[in-house]
Amino acid sequence: MKRIWFAIIALSLLMVSCISGPKGDAGTASVPVKTAEPSPTPAPTPPPPAMVSEQRFFSDGVLDQTVQYAWSPDLKLLLSESTFEATRNEPDARVVYEYSGELLTLESSYEKGNTLRLQKKYAYDEKGRKKEETQLDAKGKGTVSLRYAYDASGLLASWSVMDGAGLAMAENVYVYEKGRLVKIVMKDGSGKAEGEVVLSYDDVGREVKREYLGPQGTLRSSETKFYEGGRLAREEKRGPEGFISSSVEYQYGSGVVPEKKILKDGRGNVLGYSVFSYKNR
User: Fold this and answer.
1) Among candidate residues 129, 126, 127, the one with its CA nearest the CA of residue 158
2) Residue 103: is its pLDDT beyond 70?
3) Which of 26, 40, 236, 277 supports an S-S bond with 53, CB 3.0-4.6 Å?
4) Is residue 273 a contact partner of residue 264, using CB atoms and an 8 Å limit?
């Protein structure tokens, strides 16, 4: 913005010199006015790479599961994810995604043997925002419906859950300050408050903490995020007394996405870990 104003000021000075400069003396040269050079266009930030596999290990290093992710040729749309047990060549679970354009419209979950377990259908408003999600059982019967509402500025205002008969089960109301989510109010089907989630941020706008409160405002649990070098390094979960119940640590190579995730219990013992593989978009 400052550079734009400098350019405007310089241009106005040039116009003034042309208007008020000497007109009768052709031998008198006017002093040239330097205009601010345009700032170079910043290079676009490359998209993060697409995850193509996750290997999950027990704490002793024995392979537990492998998850494989299949993408569209341009690596924009996730087409499926398949979970394999360490000793099996066929997936024990599989999720298939279908789209209309770039909008996800159907998510189908299969058990071992390619048996359909459930489906999720998605509907959108005229602005491409998700407005409804319907969960169907294996026979196609609706079991749960999730509905989304937005405020005038386009921010998610509420999220409600209905059962198969259309009766309200729960609702989340989202509260913002200057466009930033600061609180989630949780209600039951009758509208009675069941608790809140309070969000905190650091000076650069990154979420650093979530506190889960009961209906009386008492702390139930909390989640804290720690960053190093601009990347998420660790997450901690604590109970109401403030003791760590579990944690996750992330290890990176030279990129912006983690190469390894380590799960630990409250005492710091390793419960297991995951190793990720990616393809650059």
Assistant:
1) 129
2) yes
3) 277
4) no
Residue 37: per-residue pLDDT? 64
- Number of residues written out for the chain: 281
For range 94-102, the mean pLDDT: 97
CB 47, CB 274: distance < 8 Å:
no
CA-wise closest residue to 158 among 139, 171, 169, 168: 171
Task: Mention every residue, 6+ apart, whose C-beta is less than 8 A from residue 42.
Answer: none
Question: Residue holding tokens 């405002």?
Answer: 217
Helix runs in 111-270, H state only: none
Which residue from 219, 195, 199 is spatially nearest to 209, judged by alpha carbons?
A: 199
Distance CA 221, CA 164 (A): 31
How much is the average pLDDT of 156-165? Answer: 96
Q: If DSSP codes are grouped into helix, strand and coil, which group holds residue 18?
A: helix
- Mean pLDDT for the stretch of residues 14-19: 36
pTM for the model stands at: 0.81
